[in-house]
Amino acid sequence: MHRVNDATVDLREAIFAYARTRLNYEPAPLDNTASPELLWQQAGQTITEDGLGGLEALKIFEQVLAPATISTDHPGYLSFIPCAPTEASKLFDLVVSASGIYGGSWLEGAGAVYAENQVLSWLAKEAGLPAESGGVFVQGGTLGNLSALVAARENYRQQLLKSGQPLPNRFAVACSSEAHSSLKTAARVMDIDLLPIPVAADGRIGHAEVSAMLTTKPSGLFAIVATGGTTNFGIVDRLDEIGQLAKAHNLWFHVDGAYGLAGMLSPLTRNLFAGLELADSFIVDPHKWLFAPFDACALIYRNPEIARAAHAQHGEYLDTLTDSGDFNPSDYAINLTRRPRGLPLWFSLATHGVATYREAVTKNIELAKFARDEIVKRDFLTLVREPELSVVVFERNGWTLADYEAWSDRLLNNQIAFVVPSSHAGRPNARFAIVNPLTSQELIVDILNSMEDK
Ligand SMILES: *Cc1c(COP(=O)(O)O)cnc(C)c1O
């Protein structure tokens, strides 16, 4: 075995020191964004023929690049969907990187795949799916939704072929008009039609809305997607009603729970997910509300064999894996080479236990409720909708989009919080997405009070 040289050891220690410093912050600086011009001025050309050397490259990262990236794990990061990984999951992400682990096949990654599969089995069990369910951690919800729908269409196509029925000219998927943009992307990539189902007054789709869509007898329809927590509001569709209709009409039932499905872990919101057990597939992103680092989406199928038939790649150099009969994660989505990205979550779950996760999710929901109460108390604010999970949307009475933007810039520049404006029905608003257990009541109050004056 070779000994590593001194320069490598120096760099290693510098990197560990940097990581240690970053992990020791409570919290880490929120930091900011930057223009390409500013970064060019400060960092310049970093890729050179001879290399800068690791210490110099690290210095540029530390002094220029890192401050120009907003910390998504800061307790004041409340925009979009933040990412608030546990310390254990962050640490284990380092371990995954330090180990040459491949997560695509059982042959090469048995230990890693075993651990990932235990997490997937746990999620499937929480959802009420049978023990044979399974799947894979993919990069994100967009790829998870696409992979699930590709499997669903292939299953439908095979059913038609087997029973000698003609294939439709166009295939179609139906979902709520409030569903995530990634479903439009999936439909475009698959070259299929997306049928938006208008939501009821409460923002949901259920039996009435889906039945109305079905009476139009859409041809080529093979799946219905329900949303298990919309990204804008955290609204959960009526999964039980939709699941039963899907079953009755031989349609694949997919639940997109990228953000909200973690809500099934809390006794406060478990009831919203009744009917999830009927799903043919579902997704949930650990990088959103399961306290794991970017990037990971758990994609789970009721019958993984259907997914394998649709997704397994075949090639001469792969046959030894494909023909083995082993469980190879690559076979269950649009991916081949893959990082075992479920391992940080596995380690953290194994460390803390599931009860800690239930408590953390519950705490986020309670803080959203607290924010709701504080909003209602202030006469300059108006709640847009009652929060259901951990998203709170409200308006500052009388503000234009420009007012929200100026306020948002001020919060970021003062390093208090990152809350970008959102909108609903053409009106600008402010939105908190609360997934960080370190976000405090005091911070919420400070942010709300900062809206009193322009
Ligand atoms: C975020 C989100 C997605 C997309 O997931 P990515 O991980 O960002 O690709 C899909 N659906 C819903 C409901 C989401 O909230």
Automatic annotation (TrEMBL):
UniProt signal peptide: none
Key word Lyase present: yes
Needed co-factor(s): pyridoxal 5'-phosphate
One annotated GO biological process: carboxylic acid metabolic process
Keyword Lyase attributed: yes
Family: Belongs to the group II decarboxylase family.
Protein known as: Glutamate decarboxylase
Organism per entry: Candidatus Rhodoluna planktonica
